[in-house]
């Protein structure tokens, strides 16, 4: 298994357990983190974030609105310094006041560029329409 795929598996497994330490230890100081949504959009984590502080900001934004129960790899492949992962993701969306939780489930794709064992680029892709619909649907 390539070092890049092993790194993505390690970070994803920890992320599923709300452990951000492997991610934060693995990002380059000058990382460029691009979300699958725009900053002006409906998701608190949208936009592009730069540097380690940017990663801390985006993961803080994610944790204010989402609790993950599953972040399981379906496929992780690499070629050179690029690694792609496709994940089954499930959790709860927490409303702004934290009073209501709505379950969500989707596939999530992540692309990294890894150099010298550090993530220098992160980009995520997901069905934004599906997630938004699930956030707006009242849980049974």
Please sum up the structure shown:
31% of the residues lie in helices and 44% in strands.
User: How far is it from the N-terminal to the C-terminal residue, by CA?
Assistant: 42 Å
Radius of gyration: 15 Å
Count of alpha and pi helical runs: 4
In the CATH hierarchy, what is the architecture at level 2? Roll
Structural class: alpha+beta
For the biggest β-sheet, the strand order reads: 2-1-6-5-4-3
User: How many β-strands, per DSSP?
Assistant: 6
How many domains make up the coordinates? Answer: 1
- Tell me the major beta sheet: 6 strands, mixed
Helix content: 25-40%
Q: Which CATH class applies here?
A: Alpha Beta
Backbone shape? globular
Helices and strands in order, then pairings?
Blueprint: H1 3-16, H2 21-26, E1 27-34, E2 48-50, H3 51-65, E3 66-79, E4 82-94, E5 101-115, E6 118-126, H4 128-136
Parallel strand pairs: 1-6
Antiparallel strand pairs: 1-2, 3-4, 4-5, 5-6
């Amino acid at each position: 298994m390539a070092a890049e795929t092993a790194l993505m598996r390690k970070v994803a497994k920890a992320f599923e357990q709300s452990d951000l330490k492997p991610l934060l230890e693995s990002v380059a100081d000058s990382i460029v983190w691009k979300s699958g949504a725009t900053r002006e959009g409906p998701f608190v984590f949208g936009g592009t974030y730069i540097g380690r502080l940017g990663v801390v900001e985006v993961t803080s934004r994610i944790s204010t609105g989402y609790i993950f129960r599953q972040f399981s790899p379906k496929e992780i492949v690499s070629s050179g310094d690029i690694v792609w992962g496709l994940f089954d993701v499930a959790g709860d969306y927490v409303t702004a006041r934290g009073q209501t939780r709505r379950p969500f489930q989707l596939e999530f794709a992540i692309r990294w560029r890894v150099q010298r064992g550090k993530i220098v680029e992160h980009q995520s892709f997901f069905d934004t329409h599906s997630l938004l619909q699930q956030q707006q649907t009242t849980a049974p």
